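ok, trying the design again with the full structure, not the truncated one.
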């Protein structure tokens, strides 16, 4: 397990967020959503600060979360409510800052139609 603590970066960017408004099926499993999956392979708990940027107003944040040491955590952007709830059907970008290196994956689940779509990818890692 040597080298595990060095996995990841301290800053990540997701430029293309937009939570779909419509959902089909039962909740919460089939709620349309954007999600973050965060891996903390290090030996210490990691504090995250998420700031959301919008096309027509000032950024909102930080939304604060903790990912325990040597664990993964999945977070629905839809569930971020403090300092304010994230609006649906509005473009946003997210800056994720961590006090220890982590790996961040972004996924979108769109259940607005009978055919559920899922898209995912690694967030952009910053050298900062």
């Amino acid at each position: 397990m040597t080298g595990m603590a060095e996995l990841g970066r301290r800053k990540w960017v997701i430029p293309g967020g937009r939570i779909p408004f419509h959902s089909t099926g039962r909740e919460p499993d089939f709620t349309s959503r954007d999600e973050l999956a965060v891996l903390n392979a290090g030996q210490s708990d990691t504090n995250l600060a998420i700031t959301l940027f919008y096309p027509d107003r000032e950024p909102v944040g930080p939304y604060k979360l903790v990912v325990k040491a040597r664990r993964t955590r999945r977070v629905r952007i839809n569930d971020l409510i403090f300092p304010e709830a994230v609006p649906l059907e509005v473009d946003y970008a997210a800056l994720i800052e961590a006090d220890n290196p982590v790996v961040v994956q972004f996924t979108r689940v769109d259940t607005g139609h009978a055919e559920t779509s899922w898209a995912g990818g690694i967030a952009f890692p910053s050298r900062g």
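Keeping the full-length input from now on. The radius of gyration is 15 Å.
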